[in-house]
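Here is the promised in-class demo. Please do not try to memorize the tokens; focus on the logic of going from shape to residues.
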């Protein structure tokens, strides 16, 4: 299996990846095909696919922020069982991020991720059983992610001003004993991460403002 980076919408593997995303994620979570041009060409956005033969069977997108020395996992896709895809993607992603941190003269501090809470909102992820939200939630817990103590919403990627609910915002500290992080750090990160979207819902703006009124925010078990 090959771990290959995609940097252009003209890459034949990107079409396979976009089809995979559309078959798994809800519409509000998938950026339109042509709008991927600039993100893929952005050196800070790292989109990798797992290629088995000539088929894209998995993918992960993430970013490293050198000023904060943290990463954000945008998404992980596993399309079929029996290939150890979860471990393959997680191990290669972490190896890449650790090298980016080394190049930055540091050791990676941690990684953010959003995760659906199936106990609140059901979603079948295109009937792909290996993407079952209950399973994915436990996988993130096994990897070391912790739930940020926050009533979380995010702006829809359709940029229609709608608030997407039913998710938790999580952080995986490299130091597993860490149980809190600065609230301003979370607010600053989210403001930067969603800066591409011009139409922010009031719920999201209120959430950011509430974060800025706190000093720290607790990391809870996932």
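The designed amino acids, position by position:
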């Amino acid at each position: 299996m090959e771990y290959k980076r995609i940097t252009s919408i003209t890459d034949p593997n990107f079409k396979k990846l976009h089809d995979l995303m559309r078959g798994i994620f809800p519409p509000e979570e998938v950026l339109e095909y042509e709008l991927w041009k600039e993100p893929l060409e952005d050196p800070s956005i790292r989109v990798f696919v797992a290629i088995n033969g000539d088929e894209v069977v998995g993918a992960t997108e993430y970013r490293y922020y050198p000023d904060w020395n943290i990463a954000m996992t945008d998404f992980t896709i596993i399309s079929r069982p029996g290939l150890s895809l979860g471990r393959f993607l997680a191990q290669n992603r972490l190896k890449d991020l650790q090298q980016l941190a080394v190049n930055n003269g540091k050791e990676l501090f941690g990684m953010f991720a959003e995760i659906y809470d199936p106990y609140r909102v059901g979603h079948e992820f295109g009937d792909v059983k290996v993407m079952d939200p209950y399973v994915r939630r436990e996988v993130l817990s096994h990897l070391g992610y912790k739930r940020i103590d926050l009533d979380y919403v995010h702006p829809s990627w359709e940029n229609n001003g709608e608030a997407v609910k039913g998710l938790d915002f999580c952080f995986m500290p490299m130091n597993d004993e860490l149980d809190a992080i600065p609230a301003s750090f979370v607010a600053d990160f989210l403001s930067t991460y969603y800066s591409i979207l011009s139409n922010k819902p009031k719920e999201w703006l209120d959430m950011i403002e509430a974060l800025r009124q706190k000093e720290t925010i607790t990391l809870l078990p996932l």
